[in-house]
Amino acid sequence: MITFIDELKRLLSEDRVTVNETVLEQHSRDESYHQPSLPDVVIFPKSADEVSAVLKFANENDIPVIAFGLGSSLEGHVIPQHGGISMDTSLMNSVLEIRERDFLVKVQPGVTRSQLNKELKKYGLFFSVDPGADATLGGMAATNASGTTSVRYGIMRDNVRDLEVVLANGDIIHTGSLATKSSSGLHLNGLFIGSEGTLGVFTELTLKVYGIPEVTMAGRATFPSVEQAVEAVNGIMLAGIPIARIELVDALSIKQVNRSINTSFEEKPTLFLEFHGNEAGLNQDVAFAREIVADQGCKDIQFETDSIARSELWSARHNLAYSFIHSSPGKKLMVTDASVPLDRLTAAILDTRKKVDASSIEGAIVGHVGDGNYHVMFMIDLKNAEEVSEAKRLNEEIVNYALNAGGTCTGEHGVGIGKAKYQRLEHGKAYDVMAGIKNTLDPKGILNPGKIFTEETLITQ
Amino acid sequence: MITFIDELKRLLSEDRVTVNETVLEQHSRDESYHQPSLPDVVIFPKSADEVSAVLKFANENDIPVIAFGLGSSLEGHVIPQHGGISMDTSLMNSVLEIRERDFLVKVQPGVTRSQLNKELKKYGLFFSVDPGADATLGGMAATNASGTTSVRYGIMRDNVRDLEVVLANGDIIHTGSLATKSSSGLHLNGLFIGSEGTLGVFTELTLKVYGIPEVTMAGRATFPSVEQAVEAVNGIMLAGIPIARIELVDALSIKQVNRSINTSFEEKPTLFLEFHGNEAGLNQDVAFAREIVADQGCKDIQFETDSIARSELWSARHNLAYSFIHSSPGKKLMVTDASVPLDRLTAAILDTRKKVDASSIEGAIVGHVGDGNYHVMFMIDLKNAEEVSEAKRLNEEIVNYALNAGGTCTGEHGVGIGKAKYQRLEHGKAYDVMAGIKNTLDPKGILNPGKIFTEETLITQ
């Protein structure tokens, strides 16, 4: 009998189809606390045609297909809950074309953010979306990632011009064009970005890039209270200062940074800021921002323009999640990801801090506060039932608070497994519309089953 | 026998349902050259609930429903080709809420752009999207309008945070939330914007607004050739100058302006520019831009910061289409709307000029050149078969050129009737995905039939 694995070997090649235990295990999990689950097989396609052949075959034979980038997702997106094929894009990792005068670059989905930026630097360009992790661009588009720069340059959805996508039936489509703007047809581009592998598999991405700014200045400002730090953010936004990054890191997180990388930052609520612009404009912006933070009780603000000093200043913020993970062996990271309208942010963060303090577990708060998006990082011992249930309870309360404020359960991590249960509450009848689209594009439900949509949602359609 | 018009009167009220000939005629056309067609009835709903009741009724009885804003569309979007109900949103014209600290405003669909900006000014805010016409915001979202400011502030799709939409079955959904960013669920917001009334009727819009910039400076620069003007645009974009508007107006258009509003602008290819920013940054930007335009042979550049002088400078550009219309009695406006990647723009515009010059009709070229989007305006006599066919031939050639360059058949006007025939060519198999979504959401095809989708596309699904 020919097994489906033999058939995959015929469609790709012997050496790019594996059931090796270690490889299966690597593709059974992401960086989150969600329960791992092994795929039946891991494959490494090299082209859209190969992806198409595999999807056509999987669709005819009802085999789940889960696209896999680097596994840096935070809500279990790449976990093969129902087994099947984990489709690893790491061999599709070429930067295909840099169109510098169009501010566009064409890449394969397995290219990582840092790999792309290294290439772009030669042209004086950069790709703006920076979620912290050095994720693949395919994965970042699949989850609609964002991060520290989106307050100025937008989220993944704002920076993907076109996708080549293979559908469940093997059809290969393009969701956009190379035009800067278009009113032609329905906007599939935005629909597929953030679809988490449930509507198709991305095989090529055309991304918008930017010129490296004339001057970049990074700053760190400490405040007497979280409230004052967030008020300073509101002040900067209301003043219309085109800030490039503005990040809140609370006292507990700074303590963790000091412990982990041996620094001696003042252990107080801190804003990390970055300004991009021409020299004259930036100096005026910085002077204005200094006044605003001083009004909120900030006595200590330090700026760096030198690129090494800047990158040191930011490394503390960027490595925070990893520093928690490494200092808590045996524990797993749970990160909340609520986002609220800007005016509700102060109250949301204060409420969160109160809830966490009243609970039996520790949680550090960081936030992309210019976007109203904030995270609580919990390190939890999955064998400790009380700790797990406490973290889940807090996560749920934070989600409910955000939804009541007109916000969202996930600002940037995506739905995956962890936020599927909040979709009905957040989207109401719109969730049925989403499920209708899912059913139309993937009638057999082979594409990343269990993510975004629960089985019940799709059946009751 | 109760007619369906009686039923509509029962659902709304007697005085908001009319078959008056003049009103029917007003709702039979837009500002384009497309053939008018009368609706059976025009209704004026006041709430989402009324819209829902009407749609439920229309869906059960297979009656076409066409949402109508002000009729300023340019591709026949609001023409009831198959009769039915023209649903006029002019009584839903309230600014519902201004959330200044969230940079959000909630409006009903019949609010016009200028009405909103008048309200916002009191708060030091403005809504950025400016398509020239004083369209309704519902109509602008339906066509994914943009215009002169999108090079800096984005298109309609970038500036709508949430829509309340009534679906064909009467369900009322929200497509987004108030959160600045979200990775929750499929992105319905982007899908419905630009759907031209084919997926649902908008009953409320939450829009992103901006602080009025500290300084605004407008400029007008003339060039020896169109080529040099477009090269100057590329230079400004490549320099990373955050230009707020940059518009090309060719010599023929300037001539029209002079004739129409009695000015004496030099009749040469002209760029209209606008800079927004803080004073120091803006001055540095302007100085840099001066060097770039001088390198392209511009000897004459004039700047205005005073708001009246600025608005006079821009009025020439803004009223151009109307000035063509008013100076050509008995003729109708046909505007092409191709958009190409930035690097192909010079060649595209030169090619277009050559084709128009070689034809038997006159055409003026203007362009949102920072976005690669350009228009040729033809004034055509619909009774002159040769003139009509010549304009259509040119339109088609311009579309084909743009598609070959990786661009789009419509940068901002939308598909409507006029661009439906290019959808298959532009989108390939993705057009089937769009049709699948249309069929899922509107299985009986009552919503604005004949727009975006041809009947054949939907039937072959």
UniProtKB/TrEMBL annotation, chains A, B:
Looking at the record's lineage, which domain of life comes first? Bacteria
One record GO biological process:
lactate catabolic process
| Statement: the UniProt record of this protein carries the keyword Ribosomal protein | no
From the Swiss-Prot or TrEMBL record, what is one GO molecular function term? D-lactate dehydrogenase (cytochrome) activity
Q: Which UniProt keywords apply?
A: FAD, Flavoprotein, Oxidoreductase, Transit peptide
EC id? 1.1.2.4
- Enumerate the InterPro entries for this protein: FAD-bd_oxidored_4_C (IPR004113), FAD-bd_PCMH (IPR016166), FAD-bd_PCMH-like_sf (IPR036318), FAD-bd_PCMH_sub2 (IPR016169), FAD-linked_Oxase-like_C (IPR016164), Oxid_FAD_bind_N (IPR006094), Vanillyl_alc_oxidase_C-sub2 (IPR016171)
Q: What is the species listed in this Swiss-Prot or TrEMBL entry?
A: Peribacillus psychrosaccharolyticus
FAD-binding PCMH-type domain location: 35-212
Its top-level enzyme class, in one word, is oxidoreductase
Q: What is this protein called?
A: D-lactate dehydrogenase (cytochrome)
Similarity annotation: Belongs to the FAD-binding oxidoreductase/transferase type 4 family.
